[in-house]
Amino acid sequence: MNYSIEDVSSRLKATREYLDISAEEMSQKTKTPLSDYHSLENGEKDFSLSFLHDCAAALEIEMLELLTGTTPTLKKYSVVKSGKGLTIKKSAALREGFDYQHMAYMFKHKKVEPFTVIVPYDENAQITLFAHEGQEMDFIVSGKLKIKIGNNEEILEPGDCIYFDATNPHGMIAVDGQDCRFLAVLI
Q1: Given a cut of 60, is residue 91 above it in pLDDT?
Q2: Who has greater pLDDT, 177 or 96?
Q3: For 60-94, what is the HEC assignment?
Q4: How far is CA 53 from the centre of its chain?
Q5: Strands, E, within the chain: which ranges?
Q6: Is the CB of residue 69 less than 8 Å from the CB of residue 36?
Q7: In sequence order, which residues have a C-beta less than 8 Å from that of residue 23 and are 6 or more positions away?
Q8: Is it the case that residue 67 has pLDDT exceeding 70?
Q9: 99-137 confidence digits (pLDDT tens)
Q10: pLDDT score for 3
């Protein structure tokens, strides 16, 4: 799913105003400086996944509602067939060139956000560090992933798993000449 910044920012602002929540309060709840919050809500800047997650939590809605305007409805279980997750291809909102598929997008009141992620191999790629609230678990399905958390670097291969505090700056690239596919669970 390729979403437009304008649509998401419009839904964010409309929902915030409907719930009678001030921009200042949202700025505090998302730990975003007020001027940056206004730029994000007005569609002047692209969002991070953690910002959207924090907004959804502050508004007590699902992130899917901000992204698509659709409300998740499943409560008992959710099956998403291979390659049929909610595809999110972005640049600034996520990591440059990464392909994300949300694997439980229609399940209501999720405790975690599960994604399959494909990191394209690029021989010139450099690791860019990001941080977000919560914890993260990444399980490598195919390819090799070089991940940096703070000053530590690890090379992960198929079957390897890493679990970490995502408030630590972290980043990753595919290595050894092939794309890397992994399951990312944001907690």
Answers
A1: no
A2: 177
A3: CCCHHHHHHCCCCCECCCCCCCCCCCEEEECCCCC
A4: 8
A5: 86-89, 99-102, 113-119, 135-142, 144-149, 152-156, 161-165, 170-175, 180-186
A6: no
A7: 16, 34, 37, 38, 41
A8: yes
A9: 889 999 999 999 999 999 999 999 999 998 888 888 999
A10: 67
- How many C-beta atoms lie closer than 10 Å to residue 133's C-beta? 16
Which residue's structure tokens are 């977000």?
132
103 residue type, one letter? M
The CA distances from residue 119 to 13, 48, 87, 140, in Å, are: 32, 17, 14, 11
Residue 99: φ, ψ to 5°: -115, 115
**111 vs 138: CA distance, rounded Å:** 16
Q: Which two tokens stand for residue 87?
A: 């595809």
- CB within 8 A of 44, min separation 6: which ones? none
Query: 166 is written with which tokens?
Result: 């995502």
Average the pLDDT over each of 20-29, 44-53, 57-66 and give the range with the smallest value: 44-53
Residue carrying the six token digits 């692209």: 46
pTM listed for this prediction: 0.83
Catalogue all structural domains in the chain, each as residue range(s) with its CATH number: 5-68 (1.10.260.40), 86-186 (2.60.120.10)
Four-residue CA torsion sign, 47, 110, 27, 66: positive
- The reported pLDDT for the residue numbered 149 is 97
